[in-house]
Design goal:
Blueprint lengths: L12 H9 L2 H13 L3 H29 L3 H11 L7 H35 L8 H6 L2 H21 L2 H27 L4 H9 L10 H12 L6 H6 L8 H31 L8 H12 L3 H34 L5 H15 L1 H6 L13 H28 L2 H8 L5 H34 L1
Helix pairs in contact: 1-12, 1-14, 2-10, 2-12, 3-9, 3-10, 3-12, 3-17, 3-19, 4-5, 4-17, 5-7, 5-14, 5-15, 5-17, 7-14, 7-15, 8-12, 8-14, 9-12, 10-17, 10-19, 12-13, 13-14, 14-15, 17-19
The structure holds phenylalanine.
Length: 451
């Protein structure tokens, strides 16, 4: 067993895992994926899969990191060799996915920065933010890339300074603030006349609305929102303190993420129905309807500003997770590379890659197929196509690579009766249930695309 000491102190697992789980996935991605998949039945499927597939894999990834003391590429290699599994190379895929996702995640974080400045300036000037703010931004790729670069460089700064402990203090202030703001806003949005229609759409499961794509999309979103398959939790697992019980923490993190995702639906959907007259099915719609909604409120600019600042902080923490994955893997692989060089290398690649999504909204619009923008296509290919396969690799390598005694040692806490009773369920989920569901979802997706 290899203990990581370089670069890191021991962190609270909650801070790291919640910080990486909550982000644009909850507020930007989830609402439009739910909209595309017809509402209630999909939401139910998502919650079910988060608990039965996402949670077991989250625990496995954290244990993989803690056990090997390595980041995902080395960890998968080390454990995969034991069972001679070819899937051990999937760790490499995780890092590529993290890097590419970080590139468009940063572009969208840049959109959030844009709205922060707009609300700030317009509230000072006593105006409301114009409805076409997003359109103006989308037509200005240079501005999009500039904002995205600011985001990447701020992340780099934090990663290089290693001031995560500073973030811990921030999080303690920001999290309750965000929660209060969300609750206040939800009360406001639920008072809109569209609420009845929205609640029916979101919570009345009409299974006929599900398509052949829904299973895979629900799973893929579970992986995205819980940061699974990216290697982030493997890296974080290698940093966590010895005294923490991984399964308990995994359960709490999953529950927090589910609650925030459901709250995000309650916030975004009434506004979408009200403003656009339909559910959200398009990734940029959140950025259209929410600002218009804030502008229509009394002291709306303050709400708007508060909301986008909190959203940015969530996106920022999540980006740190993606960034840290890439940096720690480069560091594990090239031992003589300092953290600084690894950080700059990751930032450089990301800055170049982000040119594609940033310019896609203006120059590269000819790439757009089936009314989908390039960002949506990239997201769909990586998250729906590649991520489930990586998650499958994690399940199989973990199940076959670790001995029963090793798994039990990390999972079972004799003081906690629940951990003892859940242990066989967890093993079953990783070995059979999750791989089976992932494969089924993926095959249905491919079938749907070829049909
Ligand atoms: N879970 C984050 C979100 O929901 C995205 C993310 C994925 C962050 C992987 C870190 C690592 O927005």
């Amino acid at each position: 067993m290899n203990r990581r000491s370089k670069w890191s102190t021991r962190y609270s697992i909650y801070l790291l895992a919640i910080g990486s789980a909550l982000g644009l996935g909850n507020l930007w991605r989830f609402p439009y994926v739910v909209g595309e998949n017809g509402g209630g039945a999909f939401v139910l499927l998502y919650v079910f899969l988060a608990l039965t597939v996402g949670l077991p894999i989250m625990i496995a990834e954290l244990i993989l990191g803690r056990f090997t003391g390595q980041s995902v590429v080395m960890a998968m290699n080390q454990i995969g060799k034991r069972s001679n599994s070819k899937m051990r190379h999937f760790g490499f895929l995780s890092v590529i996915v993290s890097l590419v996702v970080l590139s468009y995640y940063s572009v969208i974080s840049g959109w959030v920065l844009h709205f922060i400045t707009r609300f700030f300036i317009d509230s000072l000037a006593g105006r409301s933010v114009p409805d076409d703010s997003l359109q103006i931004l989308l037509q200005n790729s240079v501005l999009q890339w500039a904002l995205c670069s600011v985001h990447i460089l701020v992340c780099l700064f934090v990663i290089l300074k290693g001031i995560q402990q500073g973030i811990e203090k921030w999080l303690q202030i920001i999290t309750p603030l965000f929660a209060v703001l969300m609750v206040v806003l939800i009360f406001r949005t639920l008072a809109l006349p569209s609420t009845g229609q929205v609640l029916r759409f979101l919570f009345y499961p009409d299974f006929s609305k599900l398509t052949v794509f829904s299973l895979n999309q629900a799973l893929a979103h579970v992986f995205f929102t819980l940061s699974l398959g990216f290697g982030t939790l493997v890296t974080y697992g290698s940093y966590i303190r010895e005294d923490q019980h991984v399964p308990t923490a995994g359960f709490r993190v999953t529950m927090v993420d589910i609650v925030v995702s459901l709250a995000a639906l309650l916030l975004v959907f009434p506004v979408a129905f009200q403003m656009a007259g339909r559910p959200l099915t398009d990734p940029s719609l959140v950025f259209q309807v929410l600002p218009s909604f804030f502008s229509s409120l009394q002291v709306g600019s303050i709400f708007g500003l508060g909301f986008f600042v909190c959203l940015y902080l969530a996106a920022f923490n999540a980006s740190l997770g993606l960034f840290e994955t890439v940096v720690s893997n480069i560091g594990d692989h090239f031992k003589n590379f300092g953290r600084k060089k690894a950080g700059w290398l990751a930032a450089g690649i990301c800055l170049i890659l982000s040119l594609i999504p940033a310019f896609s909204t203006q120059i590269m619009s000819f790439f757009e197929g089936e009314n989908k923008g390039l960002i949506e296509l990239m997201d769909s290919f990586l998250i729906n196509g590649i991520l489930p396969l990586v998650a499958l690799g994690v399940c199989l390598i973990f199940s076959r690579g670790l001995t029963s005694a090793e798994k039990e040692k990390h999972f079972v806490d004799k003081q906690k009766f629940v951990s003892y009773t859940m242990y066989p369920q967890w093993l079953f989920a990783l070995k059979w249930f999750a791989p089976g569901v992932i494969l089924l979802g993926w095959i249905l997706q491919v079938y749907g695309l070829l049909k």
